């Protein structure tokens, strides 16, 4: 809805949420930032959302060749949090897709991407040919109610053989069911030799929780942070194995 898009844009831009939008917000919003059922009046920048920086750090260490030569796809790009991190490290060939026209409008205004496309991953294929990108990132959108696990093979389809895929998700209690389903999908693709895992990097201080429901056993609740994880995979160079088909 328009209200949800407004809250998401406010979150990404580091602005305070107007009081009129602070009631009955979704549990997750934007790039996977956890929001409680009733958000306290606070500057959302104080959430210290670290996923874009962590993902780009991980990708940069593994990507061969100079950054400016790599063609990157930022899936569920929002207003460009990931692109800002990529550009700061010398990545210049950036394409983005998002399911929200409002997000794309904001991203376009920032001038961070060479190309932006409207696409709701999980409901339609990515608007790119097979084997197009040196790296594909999905930062924060892999959670319940956003990008479904069934869309992961579509990310593989548009990645070049030997290319990298960087994915993140939260690991706090409210997202554990989705994380388990995601990891089952990731493991199936690895067993089928579609890709190989390079990194699975758990991070305790992922972002500040805004609700007591977001913290619990196994999370860094002593300092108010919830946890997350960065996955990095390399697509296999050779023909893919049985049981893994690109999306139609």
What is the topology?
Blueprint: H1 2-13, E1 28-29, E2 33-34, H2 51-62, E3 71-75, H3 81-88, E4 93-98, H4 101-110, E5 115-118, E6 133-138, H5 152-157, E7 159-170, H6 176-191, E8 195-208, E9 225-235
Parallel strand pairs: 3-4, 3-6, 4-5, 6-7
Antiparallel strand pairs: 1-2, 7-9, 8-9
What would you note in describing this structure?
This protein has six helices and nine strands, in the order H-E-E-H-E-H-E-H-E-E-H-E-H-E-E. With 248 residues, the protein is an alpha/beta fold. It has a single domain (41-235), classed as Rossmann fold (3-Layer(aba) Sandwich), CATH 3.40.50.150. Helix 2 crosses helix 3 (81-88).
Counted by DSSP, the helix tally is 6
Helix-residue proportion: 25-40%
Average pLDDT figure: 79
Distance between the termini: 28 Å
Which homologous superfamily in CATH is the superfamily?
Vaccinia Virus protein VP39
- Supply the number of structural domains: 1
Radius of gyration: 17 Å
CATH hierarchy class name: Alpha Beta
Oligomer category: single chain
Return the CATH architecture.
3-Layer(aba) Sandwich
Order of helices and strands: HEEHEHEHEEHEHEE
Instruction: Characterize the overall form.
Output: globular
Strand sequence of the main sheet, in spatial order? 5-4-3-6-7-9-8
**Uncertain stretches:** 1-44, 218-222
Instruction: Provide the structure class.
Output: alpha/beta
Largest sheet: 7 strands, mixed
